[in-house]
Specification:
single chain, alpha/beta, Rossmann fold, six-stranded parallel β-sheet, four-stranded mixed β-sheet, 5 helices, 12 strands, NagB/RpiA_transferase-like, LUD_dom, FTHF_cligase-like_sf, LUD domain-containing protein
Length: about 210
């Protein structure tokens, strides 16, 4: 008998007297580690994003257009992918060619684009994770996986939660969820880190208040 068969056997014996459609699902795990206010949660998010080598910026809603202009200019971006319902005023100061998110855009087309700017669905402070769900201000998954530079705008504190369980409560599991913890990276057997292999080499997160 294999280890797998032993474990499954114990599970079956433990549930022998429970009707198949009434097996209890225990949800007494911690929903978050510690108790934090909104400001502390945002600080933890910023700290963990930076720990994952994302570049974190802060601004107000009024300052956002100028900040995005400076970030794209500093990156030398001549073109930027724009999701269908990205708030128009976000890029009003940006001097770069807009490439609109369309189904016809191929990976080769997107590889020629310098940057992408999106919103987000939710951000998880404890893990430093940004979650995209394909909403109109985020666009198709491919536009955040192919361009080398991703600028993601997070509204704080509204879009920030402490933990993964809290994030899951806000997300629709039927949507195409992309969980991002820092720029794309991998390492070989000698632990030499290489960034930009499976997604953007540079991730910049803008925490916007107001």
């Amino acid at each position: 008998m294999s280890s797998r068969e032993r474990i499954l056997g114990r599970v079956r014996r433990a549930l022998a007297d429970v009707p198949a459609d009434e097996a209890p699902v225990l949800r007494d795990y911690l929903r978050e580690h510690g108790r934090r206010g909104a400001a502390e949660t945002v600080e933890l998010l910023a700290e963990n994003l930076a720990d994952y080598r994302a570049v974190v910026h802060r601004c107000t809603d009024a300052q956002l257009p100028e900040l995005l202009m400076r970030l794209l200019a500093a990156h030398g971006s001549q073109s930027v992918v724009v999701p269908p319902e990205l708030p128009p005023h976000w890029l009003k100061a940006v001097d770069a060619t807009r490439v609109h998110d369309r189904a016809a855009n191929t990976p080769r087309d997107l590889d020629r684009v310098d940057s992408v700017v999106t919103g987000c669905a939710v951000a998880v402070a404890e893990t430093g994770t940004i979650v995209l769900d394909g909403s109109p201000d985020q666009g198709r998954r491919r536009i955040t996986l192919v361009p080398d530079h991703h600028v993601c705008v997070v509204r704080v504190p509204d879009q920030v939660v402490s933990s993964v369980p809290q994030a899951l409560e806000r997300l629709d599991p039927a949507r195409p969820l992309t969980w991002i913890s820092g720029p794309s990276a991998t390492s070989d057997i000698e632990l030499d880190r290489v960034e930009g292999v499976h997604g953007p080499r540079t991730l910049e997160v803008v925490l916007v208040e107001g």
